[in-house]
Amino acid sequence: MKFTEKEIQQIKSKGLTQEKIINQLTIFKKGLPKINLKEAASINNGISVIDEKSKNDFIFYYEYKRNKIAILKFVPASGAATRMFKFLFEFLEKHNPNKETINAYINKHKASEVLLFLVGIEKQPFYEDVLKKTKIRYPNYDSFSNDDKVLTLIKMLLDKDKLNYSFVPKGLFPFHKYKDHIASAFEEHLFEAALYASSNGVAKLHFTISEQHKTVFESEFKRIQNIVETKTKTSFKISFSYQKKSTDTIAVNLNNEPFKNEDGSLYFRPSGHGALLENLNDLDADLIFIKNIDNVVVFQYEEEVAQYKKMLAGILLKIQEETFAQIEKLINLKLNEEELNTIAQFLRAKLNVVVSSEFEKYSNSYKIDYLLEKLDRPIRVCGMVVNEGEPGGGPFWVKDESGNISLQIVESSQINKADKHQKSILKNATHFNPVDLVCGIKNYKGETFNLQKYVDSKSAFITTKTLKGKQLKALERPGLWNGGMAFWNTILVEVPLVSFNPVKTINDLIKPAHQIV
């Protein structure tokens, strides 16, 4: 395909090349293969259960090491709160107050989320503030009918000329109501980090945000910094980055031709959370915790959550130490066949690597090269929770086009649900991915890996979107903890449900983990 001079300049301005765009267009035309599940990972088949004594041993080891290493908490936080209010926007669009009551609407549309919102509205952390502002704006509010009160409150919450809450960054949205203040998810991440992600009294956190929100995040940190540092006896170093424009991907129409803006320019879209691998790759730390912005709890559960984070970190440090020792042996010692086979067994037992069935036939020199290549990779220890029907990804054994089998975290959208066998494997999965990762991104020499080398580019996504009433197809990069880490060494550990408390809709804020008892 030939681009106009204007389009070439547009491509260059994003830090992209014509070759990359042509490759993306080829992907749209050829499509991407669905992932091939071999079986779901389960207890003692890819997922470990840690007993109480071992848990305490790993926590002790982490506590022993934490002041000797550089620790960072990485929090993807670029989203706005818009999706949290999706069901309320739908309600405002469909409900006609002149023709039906709110109760009639709920019954007609089986609008259980609207009903739950109304039943639990007084438990919402923002309720008192919204009610107060509503009464100021509408002095005769108390004389309204019940339905009019509900509609007025919801519009106060969402209308662009009022509070416009759906456009607040999710990280700064009111999440938890305490006796004397309301805490955002951003604030809760600081309190958590002090418990498990600090070293020598300093906690470093890196948030990936939308560039337009940088000022409000910085203002919020200045507002709460002294309070949080005093309460936790911890200093905080906060940094921010944005999804790079060079990771944007071109969009196409349904005929796989470049989608154009109204002014005729090419339309590019952010390429999903997989693009954040570049942000992660820019960081320097010995150990990195990764956790989503909306997965926080009120203070009474933070200590329990922290214990399991420290356990995962202890497991990472232990396995990393053992891995580095195996690499040093391979490099510095002349090992016999039996010793090489022992290292191969370490790969299988400790790092969940499926060693080639041909390994026994290799020469010793090739065995060494093979083992080094498998060992010398980034390592991630991932918490897994028991599956309770949550949508999203989970742990599976996957077979690639060459027949190689590996342990992966897979999104449901990567799976061919039209295939009965694949759908059955998905349905019978026992565990779910809460995005609870501890990562080691340095090699045995202390050098940071180039994380781009360990991405499975074939595990990108093609999705269908709408822009101003027109359908388009978008290309998303392999997910950060999915295909983005496909060739990392992966250890999966069961953690309790308290580790997973995301806020996908505002109704999640009335669940126990977000309420003060």
Give an overview in words:
The protein is of the alpha/beta class and 517 residues long. It folds into two domains: 19-77 and 169-322 and 378-498, Spore Coat Polysaccharide Biosynthesis Protein SpsA, Chain A; 86-167, no CATH class. Helices cover 37% and strands 18% of the residues. It is built from 15 helices and 20 strands. Strands 2, 3, 4, 7, 8, 9, 12, 13, 16, 17 and 20 form an eleven-stranded mixed beta sheet that branches. A three-stranded antiparallel beta sheet has the order 1-14-15, covered by helices on one side. Helix 7 (127-137) crosses helix 8 and helix 9 (185-196) packs across helix 12 (299-332). The longest helix has 34 residues, at 299-332. The protein is globular, with a radius of gyration of 25 Å.
SSE inventory with pairings:
Blueprint: H1 5-13, H2 18-30, E1 37-40, E2 42-43, E3 46-48, H3 52-65, E4 71-76, H4 86-94, H5 102-109, H6 112-120, H7 127-137, H8 146-158, E5 174-177, E6 182-184, H9 185-196, E7 198-199, E8 202-208, H10 214-232, E9 235-241, E10 249-250, E11 268-269, H11 277-281, E12 287-291, H12 299-332, H13 337-351, H14 364-375, E13 379-386, E14 394-399, E15 405-410, H15 420-427, E16 431-432, E17 436-440, E18 461-467, E19 470-476, E20 489-494
Helix pairs in contact: 3-12, 7-8, 9-10, 9-12, 12-14, 13-14
